[in-house]
Write a structure and sequence with these properties.
- By secondary structure, this protein is an alpha+beta fold.
- The chain has a single domain, classed as Alpha-Beta Plaits, CATH 3.30.70.
- It contains 3 helices and 4 strands, in the order E-H-E-E-H-H-E.
- It has a 4-stranded antiparallel beta sheet with strand order 2-3-1-4.
Length: 113
């Protein structure tokens, strides 16, 4: 499997950048993450996401949505709201969330040859 970034989409589109530091508590987190991925993938305006965590514990997840309405649907999802509440109670020491509209986007993929 080749590792590649999420493709460049035709702007404008919306990104949600979630940066976090986790607690030592892991109870239920992997299952909830799997469920949230399943749920958000059902959103017709969801374009994809990328996520990484540094060895020091800083995590960054960038989610891509076609428009603000698609992101609002995700934000208002009841299961997602419950997961956010549990995240604040159990899984995160701290986090920030940034929402932006992308005006320009391009990518590059090396051709084998």
């Amino acid at each position: 499997m080749t590792i590649q970034p999420v493709q460049a989409f035709e702007p404008p589109y919306v990104i949600s950048v979630f940066t976090s530091v986790r607690t030592a508590e892991d109870g239920g987190y992997p299952e909830t993450l799997e469920r949230m991925t399943e749920l958000v993938s059902g959103n017709p305006g969801f374009l994809g996401y990328e996520s990484a965590r540094t060895p020091g514990g800083l995590g960054i997840t960038v989610a891509y949505f076609r428009d603000h309405e698609s992101l609002a649907l995700w934000r208002k999802d009841m299961e997602h709201q419950a997961a956010m509440k549990q995240g604040r109670a159990d899984w995160y020491e701290s986090y920030t969330l940034h929402i932006a509209t992308v005006e320009r986007s391009h990518g590059f993929v090396r051709e084998d040859g």
